[in-house]
Backbone:
């Protein structure tokens, strides 16, 4: 199958790749470009492990074709931290022990950052509602919700 | 509420886990993240039929597809006879293990692997699957445990006969094993009881539901050495199984355990590992395989559906005097299921003098069932706890009162013969009684209710190894073999640190491959913090003893004259901190490596967990909302309380899912109709309140720091607590899991 040339931006870095029209963005991120921080849990849009930001909008990358990345700004978990510090949601996930196996964590972090960008002061219910598309089988969500609320608090205070 | 510190400096604190930054930045390498030069991608063709004889497989068109590098069927697996092999938590027949990896003569469940392909891309491999022609003779399937036992039921294994009370009956049947436990004289005790209650229960087949699909990457070298990178609960059992299936010595296999995205018991067996290995051998290139999500549901896990009957009798004072259980479990396509563990749990929370437990292990046309967190305990807790509540109601007692009156305790003899060492069942029930939640008003309104329940898991010991290299800067590199599914690197390292008076951060734990650490059994049975933690403790003592000798050299005294306390070596007026001595190893004989192995066959401490569940039931729709939920569990000693709470919360929520939503839907002909996370609905964040935790600490006398594993008991009580709460709310109590809306509505219609 002949390949298509795609120009995009990933975590702020202009990036080009070749892909088949049938490849998902998740597959290209992981297998072609090596961004393996974005996880695959279901490949059918039901677990949120593959969450990325596309032009600031939260997307399941398994449901987006790689060719659709043309001209877009892609954000993955690898782009959350700055060189000298973790993003507050990352730091709070560590402090609250909000991960066990950690396979869902990149998706939750990307989704949580998208939430805080959009609503810096969410209620517990709003956090639960926003994250309902991200499945975690290990934690029962309690510590995840607390970590996100705490991160919101911190983002809020430093803003 | 948090655990106490018990005079410890590290144990009981909440350091940030050592692998945490890797896991929040996306840098941790999980099985599917393995990347190698020249990597091929493998895919598996699966039977669409629940029960079929495989008459022929024609792979020629698939082989001819450009990009395809290797194609395999079951006959490509070496026929290595039929000995018993160790699966990590128990033995299994090699033929069954091999046939589950790739079927030869028969497909026994929808999703059973029948062929595999490696190609230059996953998409080409998938196309090639469509080109494989399999001719099946479709047979009638049997999906229910009781139907499968009936005479005339379709027989899965032509040669399987029932083993009864340890003897081969010679009777062909899907009933693989029938056994029982007896204590005292149950018939007499029932005859003398003042109240007797009997009920029957069913539970659906459910899946562990780990978010990470199974995966394996294999590289078969020209010299016959095999390396497998995989997400497994036990690299050594994976190595043993791959060796058995491929009929090769384990010394030629290296298993590299990558980070693992959940297991809950379901990632102990191998599925893809031997297939990837043979595809690599055939193609001469490394091969990566990732299971699709539908295949995870159709072909792995699940934990058994069950039929359980419980009879219990009590005297007027509320003392439970007799108990009788009939437990039939679906083992799935191959025997050797989990009913034995269920027997150990069914009456485990009570002190009952006379009883009988009658157990049936039955094959049905579903995937081979495997452990799922306290395997077998949840099904039977759902049943027993219901009957205990009925006894209480007949006797005019509160549910908590009858449990406290009959609680199992130190010295209780279980019906299956085990006598309890020091155990925390009573303390857990007392913590329920004393909790703010229990003492708070029951949710108001006509449809609110509260229930309580208790459950158990016995925990296991098994073998663990650790090595510890002292670094010259006073830190220690700790190597262990237990794959870390939920923070155990840290709970193990903390025990090491405590022993040597170090900070948790001064110990750097690593999980090593099978060539780099001594044998270590599975991460399962709630054993890692217990047994691998013990190995770390012993390795720390080894380091301590060697450092005492080094200090003795420096001070020119006998090693026996050097004492160690809280990170400081002392002899007479001499005194040296661990860190300083670590910096002087060069001049006292070179590097110091501590090492230890453990195989604790006694000392394992079981754990009890109990719940308070507040619910609201919508009588129109039958939907049950969890309003408030508390879990209490005996941790023995909570090493890292945050991760202990995490286990309690995670297990509770899996129990809530099992109670309310989760079940395998099979069509009449045995096809799984809900093999996605959309249709197999595990709890989401929106379905739940915060999960309140109360850690009870009844130290386990069989562990240097008093640890009991906490990974499992917490899944057992939720369905029963929720059922009791539903009854309290609307007056009906389902005897079948899940307690889904239509079942509640039907029960309400039946009761009015
Ligand atoms: S992998 Fe994309 S939603 Fe699950
Ligand atoms: S931490 Fe394992 S799935 Fe969320």
Residues:
């Amino acid at each position: 199958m002949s390949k298509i040339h795609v120009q995009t931006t990933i975590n702020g870095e202009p990036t080009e790749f070749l892909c088949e029209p049938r490849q998902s963005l998740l597959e290209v991120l992981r297998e072609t470009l090596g961004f393996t921080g974005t996880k695959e849990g279901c490949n059918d849009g039901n677990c949120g492990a593959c969450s990325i930001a596309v032009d600031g909008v939260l997307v399941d990358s398994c449901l987006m074709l790689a060719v659709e990345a043309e001209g877009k700004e892609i954000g993955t978990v690898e782009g959350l931290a700055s060189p000298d510090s973790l993003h507050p949601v990352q730091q709070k996930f560590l402090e609250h022990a909000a991960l066990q196996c950690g396979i869902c964590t990149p998706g939750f972090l990307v989704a949580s950052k998208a939430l805080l960008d959009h609503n810096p002061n969410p209620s517990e219910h709003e956090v639960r509602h926003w994250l309902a598309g991200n499945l975690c089988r290990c934690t029962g969500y309690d510590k995840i919700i607390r970590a996100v609320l705490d991160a919101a608090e911190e983002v809020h205070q430093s803003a | 509420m948090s655990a106490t510190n018990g005079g410890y400096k590290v144990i009981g604190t909440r350091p940030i886990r050592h692998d945490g930054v890797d896991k929040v930045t996306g840098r941790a390498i999980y099985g599917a993240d393995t990347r190698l030069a020249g990597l091929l991608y493998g895919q598996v063709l699966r039977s669409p039929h629940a029960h079929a004889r495989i008459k022929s497989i024609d792979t020629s068109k698939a082989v001819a597809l450009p990009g395809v590098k290797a194609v395999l069927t079951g006959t490509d697996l070496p026929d290595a006879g039929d000995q018993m092999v160790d699966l990590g938590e128990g033995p299994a027949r090699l033929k069954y293990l091999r046939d589950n990896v790739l079927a030869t003569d028969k497909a026994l469940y929808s999703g059973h692997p029948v062929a595999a392909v490696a190609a230059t891309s996953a998409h080409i491999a998938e196309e090639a699957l469509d080109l494989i022609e399999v001719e099946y003779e479709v047979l009638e399937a049997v999906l229910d445990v009781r139907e499968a036992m009936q005479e005339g039921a379709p027989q899965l294994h032509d040669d399987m006969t029932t083993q009864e009370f340890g003897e081969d009956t010679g009777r062909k049947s899907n009933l693989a094993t029938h056994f029982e436990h007896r204590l005292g004289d149950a018939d007499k005790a029932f005859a003398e009881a003042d109240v007797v209650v009997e009920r029957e229960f069913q539970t659906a087949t459910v899946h562990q539901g780990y978010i990470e699909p199974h995966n394996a990457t294999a590289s078969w070298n020209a010299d016959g050495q095999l390396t497998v990178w995989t997400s497994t609960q036990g690299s050594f059992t994976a190595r043993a199984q791959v060796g058995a299936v491929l009929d090769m010595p384990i010394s030629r296999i290296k298993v590299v355990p990558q980070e693992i995205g959940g297991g809950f018991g379901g990632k102990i067996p191998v599925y893809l590992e031997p297939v990837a290995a043979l595809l690599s051998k055939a193609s001469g290139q490394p091969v990566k395989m990732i299971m699709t999500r539908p295949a995870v549901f159709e072909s792995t896990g699940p934990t058994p559906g069950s039929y359980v009957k419980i009879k219990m009798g009590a005297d007027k004072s509320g003392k439970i005097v007799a108990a009788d259980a009939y437990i039939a479990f679906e083992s799935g396509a191959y025997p050797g299921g989990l009913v034995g563990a269920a027997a150990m749990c069914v009456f485990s929370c009570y002190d009952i003098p006379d009883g009988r437990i009658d157990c049936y292990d039955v094959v049905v046309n579903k995937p081979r069932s495997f452990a799922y967190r306290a395997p077998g305990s949840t099904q039977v807790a759902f049943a027993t706890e219901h009957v205990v509540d009925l006894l209480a109601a007949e006797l005019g007692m509160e549910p908590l009162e009858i449990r406290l009156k009959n609680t199992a305790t130190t010295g209780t003899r279980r019906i299956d013969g085990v006598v309890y060492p020091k155990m925390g069942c009573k303390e857990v029930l007392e913590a329920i009684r004393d909790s703010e939640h229990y003492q708070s008003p029951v949710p108001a309104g006509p449809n609110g209710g509260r229930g309580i329940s208790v459950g158990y898991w016995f925990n296991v010991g098994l073998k663990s190894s650790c090595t510890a290299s002292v670094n010259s800067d006073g830190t220690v590199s700790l190597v262990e073999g237990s794959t870390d599914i939920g923070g155990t690197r840290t709970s193990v390292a903390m025990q090491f640190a405590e022993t040597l008076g170090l900070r948790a951060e001064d110990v750097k734990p690593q999980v090593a491959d099978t060539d780099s650490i001594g044998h270590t059994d599975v991460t399962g049975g709630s054993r890692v913090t217990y047994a691998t933690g013990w190995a770390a403790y012993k390795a720390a003592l080894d380091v301590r003893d060697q450092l005492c000798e080094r200090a003795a050299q420096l001070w020119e005294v006998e090693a026996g004259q050097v004492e160690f306390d809280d990170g400081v070596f002392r002899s007479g007026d001499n005194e040296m901190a661990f860190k300083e001595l670590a910096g002087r190893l060069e001049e006292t004989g070179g590097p110091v490596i501590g090492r230890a192995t453990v195989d604790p066959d006694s000392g394992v401490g079981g754990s009890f967990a109990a719940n308070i569940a507040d619910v609201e039931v919508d009588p129109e729709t039958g939907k049950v909302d969890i309003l408030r939920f508390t879990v209490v569990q005996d941790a023995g000693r909570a090493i890292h309380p945050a991760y202990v709470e995490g286990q309690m919360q995670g297990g509770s929520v899996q129990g809530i899912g099992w109670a309310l939503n989760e079940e395998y839907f099979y069509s009449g002909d045995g096809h799984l109709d809900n093999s996605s996370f959309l249709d197999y609905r595990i709890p989401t964040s929106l379905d739940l309140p915060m999960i309140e935790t109360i850690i009870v600490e009844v130290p386990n006398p069989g562990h240097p720091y008093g640890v009991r594993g906490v990974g499992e008991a917490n899944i057992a009580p939720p369905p029963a607590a929720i059922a009791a709460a539903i009854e309290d709310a609307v007056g009906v109590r389902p005897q079948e899991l899940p307690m889904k809306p239509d079942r509640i509505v039907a029960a309400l219609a039946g009761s009015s």
